[in-house]
Amino acid sequence: MAYILQMDFKLDGPFGDEMAEAFSDLAKSINEEEGFIWKIWTENREAKEAGGIYMFDSKESAEKYQTKHTERLKGFGINSVNGKIFEVNDQLTQINNGPID
């Protein structure tokens, strides 16, 4: 069963191309996390928020990464991090062409 981790937090920037350049190494390192399948990076320049939607192959992997990333963000001075973990309903997600593989 797949699990989604949704995380968001306040961020003054960078956004867009600058974010892509600044966080490229972090993005590559996420690929090495245990149980990681994919991530969609999210940003809202106007609201000064960023985050991501992650898919992991187990709840344990999602929880482990949530803890690790929350601590990493605190190290960057970001103390208010929202995170939630959800089970993926494969049948309904397939109807809507969701990337569950």
Automatic annotation (TrEMBL):
Pfam families: ydhR. Gene3D superfamilies: 3.30.70.100. It comes from the Bacteria. The keyword Signal does not apply. Keywords: Monooxygenase, Oxidoreductase. InterPro entries: Dimeric_a/b-barrel, YdhR. GO terms for molecular function: monooxygenase activity. PANTHER family: MONOOXYGENASE YDHR-RELATED, PTHR39169. This is Monooxygenase. It comes from Lentibacillus amyloliquefaciens.
